[in-house]
Structure formats: structure tokens, C-alpha cells
Design brief:
five-stranded antiparallel beta sheet, mainly beta, seven-stranded antiparallel beta sheet, globular, Jelly Rolls
């Protein structure tokens, strides 16, 4: 009886080991399919649960990625922000970390200059023009609450531009412009494209916002080889709708107001119009 019990125990252990190996193998295949080395920002040396990083500190803390303009924020699932402490962001889509990028207006005597977050993600190897690639990612609107509390602010949603580049500090060739992130839940978008110049980096830039601290949350960038046809990625101006009109201070405006106005459309495009009459 003892001998038979040991055999049953050994068989159960073998089954458990086999299941574990199969699970790990499936996980590794999924990880290896992604050509982006740190698409979910999990490989980092950030100590606090939230941190805003400038160019130097970004390179020091985020692996396989380069920030080349303005700044970027990173959040952990358990992060509490603001005073009083508030669970801000709602958790990562993949892993435990997610990023936030945006744009801030800087006013001068002539015009408003927007400083946008710009970063790149390193690829495992150079892209080939003989292959098609499918890129997918998640964005969502930052939370609107709490309001009027120390260390927190109402941050409207934004969109992102994505490119592929041979340089970690240059946007390169435009691939996709996302819709504006007008949803509190993570929304996935994807595009199939064919590269031309053996690019080695995926680039991400925050779209030009229309008010202070315009931001978008980002996570889980995945790039894989595919046999799918290249996507039709053209802006159809006949189908887009006007979302709102704002002035240089970010306040909503009517179309007949004089001065510089920003027309924000549902497809993520922004038009500047100067009304002088």
C-alpha cells in the first residue's frame, strides 16, 4: 500500500511538473513573439509607486527605452496619489506598471508652444521590409477625480502618434495616430504596416493637447510579425466630427471668436485657425 501510494504521488508530481512546463513554455512563446523589449514598462528601477521622470532620470530608470523630449510619468497598480491619498489610474493593463505622457503649454509673446512627451522603445532586432508587422497597444483617459486636492489635478484625455525609427531620439516614419482616449477603461488599438528602412525603435509622442497638462495613460505595446495585409490608415475628413473648439488657454470657444483657436476632432487631429476679422 505504501509503495502504491508513492507511485501515485510520483505520477501526480510528474503531471504537475508537466503542466508547469507547458504553462511556462506558452508564456515564453508569447513573450518571445513581442519584438519590443519593454513594451509594458515592467523592466524598471523605480522605487516609489508613482514618479515623474525627466530625460536623464528616465534613461537611468526605464530599461530599453529612451525619453527624448519633455517628461513621462509611471504608475504602479498599488499607487496612491494626491492628498487625501487616492487610488489613481485604476491599474495597469499588463503587469504592474503603466505610463502617462502628455503635453504642457508654454506661452511666449507670439504664440503658445506645446511641449510634448516623446519616447522610444527598443526592438529586439531591426525590422525587415519583406515582412508585415502588427502593432497593438492600450490607452485610456486619466481619471477626473479627485478634484481640487493637493498634488492632483483634473487631467483631460489625449491621443498619441506612433512611428518607427532608426534612432532612439527621432520620431522617424509615422505609422499611426490613435483616437482621443475618451474612456476610463483601457482601449486597445492596432495597425498592420510594412517597414522600409530596417528600423530598430518604436517611437511614441503625445498629441498636441488643448489645455494644461493634457495627458493619456499608455501600456502593453506589442509588435509581432504577421501575414495580415497592411491596414488602410488614412484619415477620412468626411467622417470625422468636431469634438470641440478651444482657445490658447484651453477654454472652450465658439467658431466666431477672434484670435488663435484649436479645432479638436474625433479622429485625434487638431487644426489651428487664426481668426482676425
Amino acid at each position: 500500500m505504501r509503495f502504491g501510494g508513492n507511485i501515485n504521488y510520483l505520477w501526480k508530481m510528474k503531471e504537475l511538473i508537466l503542466i508547469t512546463l507547458l504553462f511556462c513554455s506558452a508564456f515564453n512563446v508569447k513573450a518571445q513573439n513581442n519584438l519590443i523589449l519593454n513594451g509594458s514598462f515592467e523592466i524598471n528601477s523605480i522605487n516609489p509607486c508613482f514618479i515623474g521622470l525627466d530625460l536623464f532620470n528616465y534613461i537611468s530608470n526605464i530599461s530599453y527605452s529612451t525619453l527624448y523630449a519633455f517628461e513621462a510619468g509611471f504608475h504602479q497598480d498599488s499607487c496612491l496619489r494626491c492628498i487625501p491619498s487616492t487610488y489613481w489610474g485604476g491599474g495597469a493593463k499588463e503587469g504592474n506598471w503603466f505610463g502617462s505622457i502628455g503635453s504642457v503649454p508654454h506661452h511666449n509673446t507670439v504664440d503658445t508652444v506645446w511641449k510634448n512627451s516623446k519616447l522610444s522603445l527598443q526592438l529586439i532586432s531591426s525590422l525587415s521590409n519583406s515582412k508585415n508587422y502588427k502593432l497593438s497597444f492600450y490607452i485610456k483617459e486619466p481619471p477626473d477625480i479627485p478634484l481640487n486636492t493637493t498634488g492632483c489635478q483634473e487631467t483631460p484625455s489625449n491621443y498619441i502618434n506612433i512611428g518607427i525609427s532608426n534612432s532612439a531620439t527621432n520620431f522617424g516614419t509615422h505609422v499611426y495616430t490613435s483616437p482621443i482616449g475618451l474612456n476610463a477603461d483601457w482601449q486597445q488599438y492596432s495597425i498592420v504596416f510594412n517597414p522600409q528602412n530596417a528600423e530598430e525603435h518604436l517611437t511614441i509622442e503625445a498629441g498636441t493637447g488643448d489645455t494644461n497638462y493634457f495627458a493619456v495613460l499608455i501600456d502593453d505595446f506589442v509588435l509581432e510579425e504577421t501575414t495580415e495585409p497592411v491596414s488602410v490608415n488614412e484619415v477620412n475628413n468626411n467622417n470625422r466630427q468636431l469634438l470641440k473648439i478651444v482657445d490658447v488657454l484651453g477654454k472652450e470657444s465658439s467658431s466666431n471668436k477672434k484670435g488663435l483657436l484649436f479645432y479638436i476632432y474625433t479622429d485625434g487631429t487638431v487644426e489651428k485657425k487664426l481668426i482676425i476679422e
